[in-house]
Fold Nodulation protein E.
Amino acid sequence: MSELRRVVVTGMGIVSPVGNWPGPLFDNVAEGRSGIRLLPAGERASPVQLAAWIDTPIDDASKGAPPDRVTQLALAAGRYALTEAGLLERPELLADMGVHLGTGSGASTTTDEAFYRLYGENRNRLAPMTLPRGINNAAASELAIRFGLSGVNNTYSIACASSSSAIGEALRAIRHGYSERILAGGSEALLTYGILHAWHALRALATPDAQVEASCRPFSADRNGLVLGEGAAFLVLESLASAQARGATILAELAGYGASCDAAHITHPSSSGQVKAIRHALTDAGLDPGAIDYVNAHGTGTPAGDAVEAESLRTVFSEHLHTLPVSSSKAVHGHLMGAGGAVELAIAIIAMQKNVIPPTAHCRVTDPGLGIDVVAEGMRQKTLSAVLSNSFAFGGSNAVLIARRCEE
């Protein structure tokens, strides 16, 4: 068996409710500036009151008919990542580059509009591009077409673990020599009439706080649910040898990936499955629990979800808990579902670069029953060498990623 290759991050691109590009996003997360707002009343009133959405223009870089919102977000974030990696003007390097994209709901805008026309307006014809725009791999395919990425093109749809799984599987593909470089991440745009109704029926969403932007409060004793958001994030992953050969700036080394399934319940998480994924990631990275300096938690703000994740962290990190700060950035950008893992890994990597841990905004009084060190008092300074990001999904699918400083 040939020696496994090291994999590094050489570019990151983000569009989110709290900023586009990694720098502005992180500044807003670190300062606790929230993108959560009241949804405006529309022609079709939604029972959901809160959401986090992008209100800045998103470039439509496609040809022909405008693509679905999820594809527009993917194109913007993908372009930013390729630009930061110095690859956008290198077609000879893009030619064999792959795409690994995660999305939970896919092109929900297109499908939602199509069903409304069929059933709400009783139309008997749909736009000819409804199907190719609405399938789950449309965004990944559009990325490949737009930027000439003719390597392997995979789409992962694993609810909240979608983009973390896409990144983890890209790590494996490069590590084992199947690809030299991959654009990996996720995109989600699920703030549609039908999807919002479905989430409302699940009774997992937060109710508006008197201070609206503080309605999502992960790990807080008074937390009462999650807030949905939209966004996209991509990382350029490539072998260390490739990055060094072209003189790329290395942002971090992607060191570990762990995945598991609770195999227990479709909506209620299980600590045993999460523990297994975290331990797999640590083993994959060759690290002991004490080597992790910060956890960017899944932390959605639901009473049960936060409690189970805290239990998982207590089990794995045990005596190291007192030196392991934990925070959730979902408090300000909302739950980005399939894109969340990629956004949160990017936040953890920037935290490591800056040696600054972003806080869990709006966590007024940390739930005393959690037993973990929740960063809630504002950003915290700490030297960070290795960071861990959790993504736990409906169906019990878990994906955990570890990044560390790259010592060439």
In short: The chain has two domains: 7-245, 257-404.
